[in-house]
Amino acid sequence: MESKSASGYCSNCQRDVLAVRQTPNHVLHLLLAIVTSGLWIIIWVLVAVRRSAPRCTNCGNKADTGLVKHLNNLNRYLKDRNDQIARVRVNAAVEEASSSIPSEKIDEMISRYIDRQNAEKSIKQSASQTPVFGRRK
């Protein structure tokens, strides 16, 4: 079997890694099909259709490639930055791409989210500033 490699994200290693996927050796299968008068073509098709998952070269677990990899990278970036507004914009962009939400609706969603966050902060601040009677220090 031959192998193809690409970059991917390993959830076990928690980083971008080299991902390797096994592919069939088509020259070998062609020779076997010729020797067996075409009977090997059935096996060749079954092997060619079955795609193995890309594996991390460090730990051997399945690695995410393509869109899943990019979404994982985006999620890691957002967690590192702890930027709530960016998360809302990314979620709104994903919703817009999937369901064609107008941009006015996205702006409204963002402003409602920010207002809700500000209200929660003010409630927490006012609760921490109000004295509690009967509490022993």
What does this structure look like?
This protein is of the alpha+beta class and 137 residues long. It folds into two domains: 2-40 and 47-64, no CATH class; 67-121, no CATH class. The protein has five helices and four strands, in the order ββααββααα. α4 runs antiparallel to α5 (103-129). It is elongated, with a radius of gyration of 26 Å.
What is the element layout, followed by pairings?
Blueprint lengths: L1 E9 L4 E9 L2 H10 L4 H10 L5 E2 L6 E2 L2 H15 L2 H16 L3 H27 L8
Antiparallel strand pairs: 1-2, 1-4, 2-3
> First CA to last CA: what distance?
72 Å
- Principal-axis shape equals elongated
Computed CA radius of gyration, to the nearest angstrom: 26 Å
Based on DSSP secondary structure assignment, what is the total number of beta strands?
A: 4
Percent of sequence in beta strands? 15-25%
Structural class: alpha+beta
Overall structural domain count: 2
> What is the number of helices?
5
The string of secondary-structure elements, in order, is EEHHEEHHH
